[in-house]
Amino acid sequence: MRTVFVTVGTTSFDDLIENITSSEAVETLKAQGYERLVLQVGRGSLLPVADSCPHIRLEAFRFKDSIAEDIKRADLVISHAGAGSCLEALNAGKPLLVVVNDKLMNNHQLELAAQLHADSHLLYCTCSTLTETLRTMDLSVLQPFLPGQPKTFAAFLDKALGVR
Which intervals hold domain Glycosyl transferase family 28 C-terminal (predicted)? Predict the structure, then answer.
């Protein structure tokens, strides 16, 4: 069963939950072949119930000790633009669509999403463009995210700082 996993991390991002469960977004997901929608809604005020989205199997929860298994089972991850959530999905090798919360001030999340998009690791949008992005997305353009190389980076820092 093709699954979309949506995560907002520990934040409240009701706009994302509201938009992804809209009839237009659900119909778009169904047209793309997805049959199951799993929502991690965090501190938000919305906690959709299973029968609130006809035509797709819906599950929702606030928090778990780990969402690693949900990410592993997903065919597509849709996430807020928090660094931890993005890296967890990318390190799991999952196609990732990041939804930037454009209501935040001094939005470093947009910078992160834009850079990872420029490097072809993810797609990104805002809540207002989510359904259109789902309709037109081409996941085949995404490139794997290679894990960092801490030893190489440490050696670079040592050299740059004159440490032996």
Answer: 3-143
Token output for 40: 């991690």
Rounded Cα distance between 77 and 96, Å, is 5
Contact 8, 17 (CB under 8 A): yes
**What residues contact 146, with CB distance under 8 A and at least 6 apart?**
none
For residues 25 and 22, give the distance between their C-alpha atoms in angstroms, rounded to a whole number: 5
CB 68 within 8 A of CB 77: no
Question: What sign has the CA pseudo-torsion 138, 141, 146, 148?
Answer: negative
The domain in which residue 14 lies consists of 3-161
Nearest to 46 by CA among 18, 86, 82: 18
Cα-Cα-Cα-Cα torsion 80, 85, 87, 92, nearest 10 degrees, comes to -110
Number of domains in the chain: 1
For 126, phi then psi, to 5°, come to: -115, 175
pLDDT digits (tens, 9 = 90+) for 51-106: 888 789 999 999 999 999 999 999 999 999 888 899 899 999 999 999 998 877 56
User: Is the full-model pTM beyond 0.70?
Assistant: yes
